[in-house]
Amino acid sequence: MSAATSRWVLNASGSTRHAGSAEGAPVHVVNPVLARSARVREEQPDRATAALQAAVAIIPMAALAHTADYEIVAANDRCATLLQVPIHQLIGRRVKDFIPIADRAGAENIARTLLRQAGSAGTTAPVLSEVRNGIGPTLSADSAPTTSAIRRVLRNDGSAVSCWMHVGVTPFAGSTVFVACMDLVNPVLNDAHRWRQRADHDELTGLLRRGPLMESLQESLAADERVVFAFSDVDGLKWINDTHGHAAGDHVLAVIGRRLQQCAPPGCLLSRLSGDEFVMARILSADADDAVPQVVAELVDAIQRSLAEPISWGDSLLSVSMSTGVAVSRPDEAQDPLFARADAAMYAQKTARRAARLLPSPREG
Q1: Domain containing 84: what range?
Q2: Model-level pTM?
Q3: Going along the chain, which residue ranges are E strands?
Q4: In total, how many domains does the chain have?
Q5: pLDDT in tens, 253-278
Q6: Residues 206, 334: one domain?
Q7: Are 92 and 153 part of one and the same domain?
Q8: Same domain, yes or no, for 189 and 54?
Q9: Which residues contact 238 (CB under 8 A, 6 or more apart)?
């Protein structure tokens, strides 16, 4: 469900829930006593969100606000410039989309620590969704716990920069909100963090290496999140190496890496697993069953579009394809069975295409 076709409605208990606003989608206001309140809430401007956005906008450095669910709900122009993403596209994204995989566990530990400190100080609030619908636009910093550290953030082009990250948690309009301010560090420290970034990424394609990818998948599976895992193998790379040389094969892999980054939907994990094997994965919440078919279609479409045009090499145009298998994680499934199912699906597609004479023989590719 896209942000443009969704809204919040009241359920019988008076709390809010997410529901589709498209024609035919289920929208229920089951408590007659609350019906008028729900209509008023839908009709009036979202003053709380506007107030939060206004507060973040005047912070004199890159800044964003996110819920305890790690959903970005406000950002300023400096943040949009730093992350290379327009503000309207930042809203609704998850914070971890902009944190290097190797740093995510540390960032979540900091968030949990701040929440505990805020709970001890009595500054947290129980309802997270109300940051979108709250009526009282009052931002309070009384007793709000804060922390500062050098952290890396990911830009939209996949590059990482090091920032002094100042994070605080505060109640706002009945919700618990994190506010993160980012200030670029000096070049020497940034260089040190850049070397760490290089260690996590494949030199040829710029995509994640196998280790960091598997760490991220394991982390998501342990958190009961849904993982949509697309595993692709380049068809006929051996033929390209034998015919045009290994430099041509490396060029093909590098181009595939760049095109996958250009075509991948926002929030995807991309990895060159090994040799001619690539992974495109998307992490969803545990209750996102309805979104799975669309996400699967988006990943397959992105992979196909990345190879829609031939790859030039010298005077030649090389038509390249990839066989792809997609697996969706099951409850309590570990990463190895998930990977095995995607691998089996990929080889089934490759075998079927060879049988239809759409691909070279196994000895050729």
Answers
A1: 45-198
A2: 0.53
A3: 6-10, 16-20, 62-67, 72-75, 146-154, 160-172, 175-184, 226-234, 269-274, 277-284, 311-313, 316-318, 322-328
A4: 3
A5: 999 999 998 899 887 889 998 889 99
A6: yes
A7: yes
A8: yes
A9: 363, 364, 365
